[in-house]
Design brief:
Chain A is of the alpha+beta class and 178 residues long. Chain A is built from three helices and five strands, in the order αβααββββ. The termini of chain A are far apart. Chain B is α+β, with helices and mostly antiparallel strands. Helix content of chain B is 42%, strand content 15%. In chain B, strands 1, 2, 3, 4, 5 and 6 form a six-stranded antiparallel sheet that branches. The chains are: A alpha+beta (178), B alpha+beta (188).
Amino acid sequence: MKKKNLCPRKRKGQMQMTETIAVLFIFFILILFGIMFYYKYQGVAFKEKQEELLGARAMDTTLKVLFLPEISCTKGEAEPEDNCFDMMKLRHANETFKKYITKYYFNLFSYSRIYVQEVYPEQTQYILYDKEIPFLEDGTKGWEKKEPTFFTVTLKDESKSAIIPHYGFGYVVVEVYS
Amino acid sequence: MRLSKSRSAQMEMIGLVIIVILISLGMLFAAQFALKENPQKKIFTRKGLSYSTMSALMKTTVYEPGCEGDFKSSLNPQIGKDLLEDCARNKGFIQDNGFSLYRCRNQHTCIFLREFISEMLNETLGGWNKNYEFTSELIQAESDVPQPLFEKIVGSHGGCYKKERDSSGLFPIHTESGLVQSQLLLCD
């Protein structure tokens, strides 16, 4: 009589146990998915942060280039012209940049490449600064990513006319390495 | 019996609370993705680039055959100062490549301007896969409605339709015919 009463109870207990185990299993699977997702997200977020920092460096370097007195259009103590490079300075800027690259310019631009491309009237390219991250010991290149920033500039040339300065059209490219 | 029922209800409540917490966490993540701000560099580049392109274009001196105009000395015209003014003054003669003071590439100034500005923008902004629109309008005292000097220039990758965009701002030039306003829209 007793045995007959115990059997369905036991079965019910077993069922509840199985149910609890199943629920726990699903719960832990969900937790595992959550952890995996968070891990992946952290990886992506880290990369994004790195890109953001590189973008900010590219922005800073571009601003420094745009307002660099060595190449910008100045006239005595007057305000320098907006987004303007002086061709007479630009043609010889590379020599100055090369000469003082370690003493001065590396602190300003770090590892980057800066050049001005003339679009009109000619198509000349002026490389101002080029300092790549050195190769690693195993021979592979020292940088993974290059972030370019473009900016359109006007190229003032006073050598063409003594009366009115001539203005060309071009752009400056600032590539920062990371 | 009552006790077991209340315990089961408690368990269900805990389960519900866990589900609600998990859904809230998911929602928080989704909101973080959705409300992500545009990278600062993107905005800076778009704003600065539209203004710098426009100011550079307006200052550009044109060296093309026929650009000397009626002047005997070789004075090359600037887009913002000379060519836009000439286009505004002689807009009425644009049909059949009619009269204009400057005859760059043997074309009416308005026709030449559209062609030249398109080339310049295509070589720079177009080459960097940017969407853009350039407009130049004439506002006359007799009419409130601005009249386009030439057809709107749209980038080869498209114009600015319902996208994030920035303007160079209006570049106004006073001419004998009225006020010429030029604007460049840059978008991603």
